[in-house]
Input
Amino acid sequence: MNISLRVNGQPVEAEVEPRLLLVHFLRERLRLTGTHIGCDTSQCGACTVHLDGRAVKSCTVLAVQADSCEITTIEGMAAGGALHPLQAAFQEHHALQCGFCTPGFVMAAYELLGRDHVPGEPEIRAALEGNRCRCTGYQNIVEAIRSACGRS
Amino acid sequence: MRAFVRRETPADLVGARLPRIEDPRLLTGRGTFVDDLQLPGMLHLDLLRSPHAHAHIRDIDAREARALPGVVAVYTGRELAQFLKALPGAGGMEGFNAPQHHVLAIDRVRFVGEGVAAVLARDRYIARDARELISVMYDALPAVTDPEIALTPEAPVLHDDIGSNRAFELRIGNETEAAIAAADRVVRGRFVNQRVIPNTMETRGAVALFEPWENRLTVWLSTQAPHLMRREFARFLDYPEHRLRVIAPDVGGAFGAKNNPYAEELLAAALAVRHQVPVKWIEERSEHMLVTSHARAQTVELRVGVRADGTLLALHYRLVADMGAYYHAITHIGPMMTAALMTGAYRIPHAATDIVSVFTNTTPTDPYRGFGRAEAAYFIERTMDLIACELGLEVLELRRRNLIRPEEFPCTTPTGHVHESGNFQLCLDRALARLDYEGARREQAKLRSVGRYLGIGFATHAWRAGFPSVPGGKGYITSGWEKTTVSVDPAGKVRAVIGTSPHGQGIVTTTAQIVAQQLGVLPRDVRVVHSDTDAVAQGNGTMGSRSLIVGGSATLLAAQQVRAKAIRLAAHLLQLDPQRVMLENARFGDVGDPARSIALAEVAAHAFAGPRDLPEGMEPCLEATALFEPTNFSTCFGTHVCVAEVDPETGMVAIRRYLAIDDVGRAVNPTIVEGQIHGGLAQGIGQALMEGAGYDVAGQPLAASFLEYATPRASDLPHFEVELTETPSTVNPLGARGIGEAGTIGAPPAVVNAVLDALAPLGVRHLDMPLTPQKVWRAIRDARA
Output
């Protein structure tokens, strides 16, 4: 099937098998390998990207479902060579260790920035329920997100 | 937790909270993990796995799979055995029953997930389609997954050539029976340290490239020990090691589980050579749960002899260790490590463990963060609370009475371990002060009076890290040294080549801090090279909390040697006595006359001159290689306190506070150290409350995805209160102690002790992990009935 979409602001057209997952399309066809695959049951959140402004798990979306959509991946977050404030907060607060789950956390946390208040710790922890990390114990991720929300 | 602090001066870099050099690449999606690699013409390897825990393979029909367009080859175990050796198993231990373990099962499968056929195809979707087309006829056999049952005469035997399920038996320790018989009280118990799954967020994977015209084999591998893997791949493939290159690119967590030369990665390399085409294999999460090493799986029956005042006299364990169906790299070491550290932080004159290691129809076990030592800490810390409960003693008083005192070091335990130094009381005192122990007990009493269950649990743990080389060792991991080369280029920029293989521990930043401080340069001017066996000739890897204490020490020694040489050369160029030369802000100057100075870059440029322009006897180049071999393990210790409340209506455990006071010896970057503790705590609390890899009676795993296996999420964990103490270790020049495993070692006993303290009014004496709501609720229901 033929699909046409925008990825990180660039128009993309491609011929894909109907069964191709969006995450494989991004990683293997577009070579946007910052989006990771950490499980096969849509629970780890490492593959989180933005589809029309909403965080989705790209392992649970078919490439054909993204037809006519606007996709943003982790590669689209640091515009103009500077870290996005959320990414900078992750570095400052030591919110990553091996870094494998990190793109998914950044993409998932981005939604919290748009809220009309600075979320508290329980709210941030609850909002991260779709993302798993095995290195950090989450504490510094929570602090990074809270700090970034306070700044934006 | 304090965030990183940016700084621009090299002074006092050791101890500075410097932001990680590793981060920007990973934060922007520009890391390179194995699955990110694509090579021209690359084929994908996929394995068909056994759905049976124990069965004969009667027939494998792969005709349909072979006929599928895009499929290059299909192999069975029997076909592979015609050109491949058996897998490397736990080698080098005499008297052990080592079963044959093949890349794919031959005739018989022994655990669910064992590979029975391999497909090589053009892409991963076709490989999966082909896998589904292979038809295997099995004759199911009775399976055994409980190691105690596996020891009975009626149990099905896994390995006919061994004749029983006994892997090995070993006694470690001194005489215990007379002391137990003479004790005022003997306390008995049985504790299970359940089977868990490491679950690195990145699963395993490999890409293998064979270049026949160069006779070069390159393997990109998600591993924590590229040099050990190079050796094992070379042996397995009969391939010259000097032509093999192993690269650990970015690795998404390892935790001990990426230390084994696994069947799938070896097969990917073998098929890349055989078909002369690049081969990729990437593990799926459900495969990871089935075939990557599981861990722990130890049970002790204990007897401890105690004086009426609580003085510990003798401790005996019968330890049953579940090896799984086969050995992985160092499966057999786990129970030995547990036995070696069975006395924990305490002075116990008589102690011994009788180990019985058993094969079962389950996934092989191997290291996981805290290997052997987490089990030891759990058993002894639960034992302490059990003694306190039975003798009516205060848990803290009992611990204080028996902790090894600072003046007693070095202290040799009855099981042969030497605690080199320590101050166990220091961490305990700091924890109590921070907690307000008296206040916490008052709060507990108050809540109890209104029917609420609050508990306080302690772990005053002591363990060890940074193993020395094993004398005469023939086994898999027997070399304890590490090596670093530090060199300064003519522009004054520095390269440090290290033998450990960091993958999240922040060792790149930490190494840069150590080197930059010695040479008076900025950390960003130090490039740290690691994890590529062509760039790093030799090394031993990242495991057992050794990267800083062993690798960091080698780095410190190399940097000191370069500094000393630079000072000699600067003195020569400035025509000064070397004693008068000091290094500040990358300039070497006269102590008495700061105007007389020369930049490190100028010294470095001179160092490349011919020998005639250098001081007598000095070789060109500003470079040094130093090797550090520890003479003994570093003793690591801390006090963890958990305050938890149990909801009697739901059985839910809520952690109100968690304090971790750990002694790190020397914190090179405290923020990184605290992060290491956090991560370990999450895994330790996960084991205490949520995680467990069980099997049903037929040997079917009860957890094969994140749907059934609960690693903690953000909302499952409390805000940790972490504090570091710094009592220098005596066995490495940095004075550092291991910290990577403190969390997985301290948390399980602290949490379980807290929950059982909460349930004490109900008379619940013990519950085995994980303390799920269901298990806790049932215990409360039964206690009330």
